[in-house]
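Hi everyone, sorry if this is the wrong subforum. Our group has a chain we'd like a structural model of before ordering constructs, and none of us has done structure prediction before. Sequence below.
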Amino acid sequence: MSGGALADLRLIAAAQWCAWQRSRLARAGAALLAVLLVATTVFTGLRIQAGQDERAHQQAHAEAAFLAQPDRHPHRMVHYGHYVFRTPAPLALVDPGLDAVTGQAIFLEGHRQNTAMFAETGASADLGALSALSPAVVYQLFAPLLLILLGHGAVVREREAGTLASLLAQGVPGQRLLAGKALALAGCVLLLLVPLAAGAALAVAHGESPLAALALLGLHLLYLGLWAGLALLVSALVRQRGAALASLATLWITLTLVLPALAASTSAATTPMPGKLETDLAMLADLRQLGDGHNANDPAFARLRAELLAQHGVQRPEDLPVNLRGVVAQYSERKLTDTLNAYAQRQMTAEAQQAQALLRQGWVMPVLALAEGSRTMAGTDLRHHHRFLREAEALRYDFVQGLNRVHAEQLAYADDIRRSSDAQAERRTRVAADNWRLLQQFRFEPDAAGTRVAQAGPQALMLLLWCGALALALAWTGARLRP
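Answer:
Right subforum, don't worry. Here is the predicted structure as tokens:
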């Protein structure tokens, strides 16, 4: 590009900025959005920090209470249970994502897989509703409105004022004129991203990867650039400012409000999930067939009992080198966990399929692409929630089976069956509290930044294609621009 062309671009952009500075509506809209962005960034950051401190405190309290238990029978501790908490990821101060609707604590205990608790609000059909205004919501829904306000008159104002004809007559190509206007709007986009950059920098200071923060900024840059390009394209195509503003407002309502709501309903209808009641009833029926792990004489464990006696060449459980009750508890917990995991995986698969069905519609609704990509980079998406559930379940199973192992290897069967009626036997079936340290500290961390970038790749591609299509449309429109 020649020096003259660059000078033209700077002049056109500067003239556009001067026009915005003279517009009270533009100044008021920019000020309102700036206040909204700063306020939501501050308040969301404070809320996330308070939640992080509270969860860390509760996690430490739960661990201290569990480890402080006196000598007990190991199966008592299996039922005593333990809480684990998921602390917010650093970038949650920008995009809390699903954290408010999925629950952040799980009670771990024997023979059960509990769901996450203490959600701030009820989950929506698309597993993506947001309970409070956050920077992510402001960027997804309200920042495009400012770009519409600024961009709708970028070209049509020149046409109405009669200056478009003189510019074209002076030899300024239509494509160069649109490029200058696009440069002015690009400056607005960069200014809009300043609060987001500040929030991302704060997240990096709290341990987030710079790569994840930059990727989050990149996704929002594409999204806002898309809306700036759309506003400029409409402004170049229509003849009146009112028509341009009405057209862009209709597009905003359609692409950010109406179609996403319809997409959520469609995804829920086309990929239905089984009801909780019917699932629980079916699961309970399957669990009943596994036998009662508290009763070593349950017919479900007759084969295990016979094989164990034959393996050690004895006739009575009292003569075994291990406690039959503890062995049955281990066996029962393994079978029960396999069944629970199968149902849990079925539920998570259904949720993922529903979310994927919604995401596929991001090709025509860029707000869905940005929302999912933003949650992915922040570590607050459905995939991270599922991993939290899996890791918590793995911890539950390990600590239950660890105590069952102590039950099998350190307690005598004769004492175990008499402990309710014999005080001496009851004392001998208590094990040292050191065994509670089978439960290791639980800390949930987001996926590595590179992994999250790869996972957000499809959403970035959707936004890139939108931007590319708009760039081609602007180039075509600029080449045919007439007064």
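For your construct planning: Residues 3-479 form one domain. The chain has one domain: 3-479.
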